[in-house]
Every structure is written in C-alpha cells, then in structure tokens.
Amino acid sequence: MSTEYQFSFEENKLLKELADEILYEQILENKEEFIAEGCLGAQKYLAKILQKQSIVLKQMKSQTTHSFENFEQLVDGINIFIQFMNALYRISPFNTDLTQDFKQLQFNLLCILKAIYSSYKKQDYFMLCDLLEHELEANLTQWKIKILARIKI
After folding, report:
1. Pairwise CA distance, residues 13 & 137, whole Å
2. Range of the domain at 144
3. What is d(CA 145, CA 6) in angstroms, rounded to the nearest whole number?
C-alpha cells in the first residue's frame, strides 16, 4: 500500500482558479474572509508541497521510476503556489517588512526552480537532490514562517 501523496486535480484546479481568476470586486466585498481562507489554504497546500518534496527526494535518491512523475507534480504544485501567493499579495495589507520578505522569498524560490530545472535537464541528480533537500525545503519553510504566519487580516 503506497502512502505517497498525489496532488488531486481538484486541488490544483481550485488554487489555479483562485490565482488566475480573482475578481477584485468580489474580493473587496469580503476581503478579510478571503485573506483568512487564502492563508489557511496556502498553509495546507504548502504542507502538501513539502510532503511531495520529501517523496520526490526519497525516490530520486533511490532512483525510483515514479520519481519523474512526482517531480513534475512537485514543480506544478510550486508554480501554482507562487501564482496563488501573488494573488494573495495583491489584496493583502502587507507592511514594508513583509513586502521585502515576500519579494526576497519569491525571487529565491524562482532561482531555486531555475536551478532545479537546469539540474533536471542535465540529469545531474546529485545536484537535484541537494537542491530539493536543502534549498527548496528551507525556502518553503520560510514562506510558512515569514509570510503566511505574519499576514494581518
């Protein structure tokens, strides 16, 4: 029995819709509620991304054939998370410190994704595992601590 987590189509679709199709008029009417639900949803989704990261890392280290399918799901999940956080950022009352942290973490995450993609294309699995285990995990954990925990509603 496999305990691997699969991002469900509905989870990906829901977060993508929230990130891509936010209507400002509707959000402004219930801004606090949307921000609160958005933060909670982002925290849950981030936990699932970290779980998927752990699975992919174990599979890459053991060279399991399922690792590439899970790798693609991980990258898709991170992209959706970035899109959603951008949407949340646009409507949230971020202070200057939070804005700086947001921009820095986002920049770092995009650099990490670029390095992950480059390692994957070069089939440098040692570097890929290192990026997944250290850089990606640390960055995603900082999102939880520095951004999601500090958004004021």
Report:
1. 24
2. 9-148
3. 25
Query: Can you tell me the distance from the alpha carbon of 34 to that of 30, in angstroms, rounded to the nearest whole number?
Result: 6
Q: What is the mean pLDDT of residues 104-116?
A: 96
Unique residue bearing structure tokens 């200057």:
96
**91 burial via Cβ count (<10 Å: 0-12, 13-18, 19+):** middle
Per-residue pLDDT at 51: 94
Token duo for residue 149: 């925990």
Express as a percent the part of the chain with pLDDT over 90.
44
The verdict on residue 46 lying in a domain is: yes
What lies within 8 Å, CB to CB, of 39 at 6+ separation is 88, 148, 151, 153
Question: How many domains does the chain fold into?
Answer: 1
